[in-house]
Specification:
single chain, alpha/beta, Spore Coat Polysaccharide Biosynthesis Protein SpsA, Chain A, seven-stranded mixed β-sheet, two-stranded parallel sheet, 8 helices
């Protein structure tokens, strides 16, 4: 069996090597890892770093900046594993959580497992980091609106960690190419009636000074995406 790990990259020269090292360091037993690096036309040197990396990685390069969703779509098309997970390249999420997220799928209890940053058992790592109050409020607002619109009881709707059986993910068509890809994917999964298992994960939020890219504008687009896909 194989887990395809899709890593979208845009201007992450300071973290790309470290996140790959962390992914490589995870022991998944008999499950092989296929690391798919998708550079979305970085202009900070990330592209060159990826090209020079030593390792058997799938390396894909966009000819123009198309958005995180577009990068994920490119990775999904290239994935050959029975399972697929999304991995941000900014060190906010810990690959050691792969094993926990894989368990329900390997036990045939689910075809989709999402991490949750807001479960009571989720951990903020390292402890010196806290989520910016506006991000916390924005995320909680999106979760509330999503649950009202779709009749769900989810504790997180925009986590990076989404693990799928490959055939399940590839059966879901998503139009969005930006950050709103995550929300549209969630909307379409729920509307198709797929069961989602959510598990607590470790999360180390970074600040805008450290390179965080998502903003309040993306939150507005996410709300519009939820409503548009509901009706």
């Amino acid at each position: 069996m194989k887990l395809s790990i899709i890593v979208p990259v845009y201007n992450e020269k300071n973290t790309i090597k470290e996140i790959i090292k962390k992914i490589e360091g995870v022991n998944l037993g008999n499950i092989k890892k296929e690391i798919i690096l998708v550079d979305d036309f970085s202009i900070d040197g990330s592209r060159e770093i990826i090209k020079k990396l030593k390792g058997n990685y799938v390396r894909l390069f966009h000819k123009k900046n198309s958005g995180k969703g577009a990068a994920l779509k490119t990775g999904i098309k290239a994935a050959t594993g029975e399972f697929i997970i999304f991995q941000d390249s900014d060190l906010e999420y810990d690959p050691e959580d792969y094993k926990k997220l894989l368990k329900p799928i390997l036990e045939n209890r689910a075809g989709i497992v999402f991490g949750s940053r807001f479960s009571k058992k989720s951990k903020l790592l390292p402890k010196k980091h806290t989520m910016h109050p506006l991000h916390w409020i924005g995320n909680k607002g999106l979760i509330f609106i999503f649950n009202i619109l779709y009749g769900t009881k989810l504790t997180d709707v925009e986590p990076c960690y989404k693990l799928f059986k490959s055939d399940v993910l590839k059966s879901v068509d998503v139009n969005s190419n930006g950050f709103e890809y995550d929300i549209e994917l969630m909307c379409r999964i729920v509307k198709k009636g797929h069961k989602i298992v959510q598990l607590p994960i470790r999360y180390s939020p970074r600040a805008f000074e450290e390179g965080k890219k998502i903003s309040w504008k993306d939150g507005i687009v996410a709300c519009i995406t939820m409503i548009k896909n509901r009706f």
